[in-house]
Amino acid sequence: MCKVNSSLYVRKSSPGRLESAGETHWIPNTDVYVTEGILVIKVELAGMRREDLELTVEGNRLMISGQRPDSGRNTKCKFLVMEINYGPFECVIEIPPGYDLTEAKAAHQNGFLRIDVPQAARPTSKAVLVPISEGK
C-alpha cells in the first residue's frame, strides 16, 4: 500500500465554473494501492454523505469532488486550533495504464470512500459518472 503524493493530483475547476478569489479547496487524505489485480483508491471523507460526493471519469482521470458542510458549531466561536477542512473539494487522480475506470465500483462507508478499479481489457476515453453505493 502506498500513500498518494499530492503531486499525483491535478487541481482544476469544473467545466464552465469560475473560482472566486476567496473560495478555498482542500484535498482529502487518500491511499492508492493494488491488491489481487484491482487498483484500490481509499479516500478519507469523515462527516460527508454519499449524496454530497461526485465521481467523474474522463479517459484515465478520476475526479472526486464534493463539499463538506461546516455545521454543528456556534457561529461566534473563536478557534484555538482548526485542522478539519470544510467546504468544497476537488481532486483528480491519474490512473496508470492497464486499469478500466469505466468498470470502477465505489462504496461509501464509515467516513471512507473506496473505489475499486479492475484491470483493463482495453483503454477507453468517454466520460462516465461512477455511482456510489452505501457500504461494501
Layout of secondary structure:
Blueprint: E1 2-3, E2 30-35, E3 38-44, E4 53-58, E5 61-68, E6 87-94, E7 105-109, E8 112-118, E9 128-129, E10 132-134
Parallel strand pairs: 7-10
Antiparallel strand pairs: 1-2, 2-3, 3-8, 4-5, 4-9, 5-6, 7-8
Helical/strand content category = mainly beta
* Overall spatial form: elongated
Number of helices: 0
Major sheet size, sense and barrel closure: 6 strands, mixed
Instruction: Give the spatial strand order of the biggest sheet.
Output: 1-2-3-8-7-10
Number of β-strand runs: 10
Report Rg: 16 Å
**Low-confidence spans:** 1-22
Report on the structure:
The protein is mostly beta strands. 0% of the residues lie in helices and 40% in strands. The protein is built from no helices and ten strands. It has strands at 2-3, 30-35, 38-44, 53-58, 61-68, 87-94, 105-109, 112-118, 128-129, 132-134. The chain has a six-stranded mixed sheet with strand order 1-2-3-8-7-10, with no helix packed on it. A hairpin with a 2-residue loop joins strand 2 and strand 3. The chain is elongated and about 55 Å long. The two termini are 20 Å apart.
Brief characterization of the structure:
Helices cover 0% and strands 40% of the residues.
Task: Quickly list its features.
136 residues; mainly beta
